[in-house]
Hints:
The protein is α/β, with parallel strands linked by helices and 238 residues long. It has helices at 13-26, 44-54, 62-68, 81-97, 100-108, 142-152, 213-222, 229-236; strands at residues 2-6, 30-33, 57-58, 113-117, 120-124, 156-159, 166-170, 173-177, 191-192, 194-198, 202-205, 208-209. The strands form three sheets. It has a five-stranded mixed sheet with strand order 3-2-1-10-11, with no helix packed on it. A five-stranded mixed sheet has the order 4-5-6-8-7. A hairpin with a 3-residue loop joins strand 10 (194-198) and strand 11 (202-205). The longest helix is centred in the middle third of the chain and has 17 residues, at 81-97. The protein starts with a strand and ends with a helix.
Amino acid sequence: MLIAAFSDVHGNLHALDAVLGDIAQRGADRVVCLGDLVGYGAFPDEVIARVRAEGIATLAGNYDDGVGFDREDCGCAYRTAQERALGDASLRWTKAAVSDEHKAWLGSLPREIRMDVAGKRLLCVHGSPRRINEYLFEDRPQASLERIVAAAEADVMLAGHTHLAYHKTVGGAHLINVGSAGKPKDGDPRAGYALVEVGEAVSATFPRVAYEVEAAARAIEAAEGLPDEFARALRTAR
């Protein structure tokens, strides 16, 4: 089975449209979204509407949880007071931009998706099986990752949240981070997602898709109350 998995769209409708178009051309058997549809970008309500219209199996990210339940915090890890202030402004703006119907939908999303594929147990989460906002970076100590994956009871685990894609073997299982569709952080501004082939073996590739980065960035700059710093982040992918 060929599974297309994307995550961390963050209100970037231009990137989402590009990713879904690329997936359609590749003929994936199943498409899943690992959360964080909203936040930072100028089109959170439109992104939700598109994903719902496509009928894509979707789980909740930490930002979806913050908006869906109208929380005062999105569960994001900010390192400085300035980052916190920018993040708070984004959360306020996004909560105001998302309709009540879509907030209710975000609040109804599951925290994990499990499926059996070719005799293998596959688990999809946003951050980790333990916490919706836990970062599973590639360079995390191997022993720590092995404990997390062992407790997940999965042969293949897909995650997002870090905005950095990778595929590594952990304790005999496959840990795959699908990267970010709408807010990459690896210096490449193109939208990213993962194609995971599950059969006798498991393999992953990480397509990058060009999209109208400048249009998405200018939409942020035109949105009153949404900090321009997020437009710069799209242009630089940092």
